[in-house]
Amino acid sequence: FAERASNPVKHVTLSPQVHVGVGSGGSWVSLTGEATVVDDVAKKRELWNSAVEAWFPEGPDADSVVLLKVEGDSAEYWDSPGTVISYIKMAAAAVSNTRPDMGENAKVDM
Fold this sequence. Notes:
By secondary structure, this protein is of the alpha+beta class. The protein contains four helices and five strands, in the order βαββααβαβ. The chain has helices at residues 7-14, 41-47, 50-55, 83-96, and strands at residues 2-3, 17-24, 27-38, 65-79, 104-109. Strands 1, 2, 3, 4 and 5 form a five-stranded antiparallel β-sheet that branches. The two termini are 23 Å apart.
């Protein structure tokens, strides 16, 4: 969800190549692709929830509210053990002159 007059919507309109990243705890996902602005009231109603309502109190039927859709070209994810454990692993690797095991990482072409 985005405001029609917002900078992200202007950016997508002028240059649709985007990079989207999201993380939680020690896990991260990065998506690269092409974005489009979607003005579909039925889809906005389908995706609407109380978190969205907090940002857009005018509701899903408002002309000022649009969706940003990203068609992914590639994605990458990282799953690490968390900040404290990561620092411990990096310190142990420095002492033993080895590379630390910082978790899983993979790239996917879509």
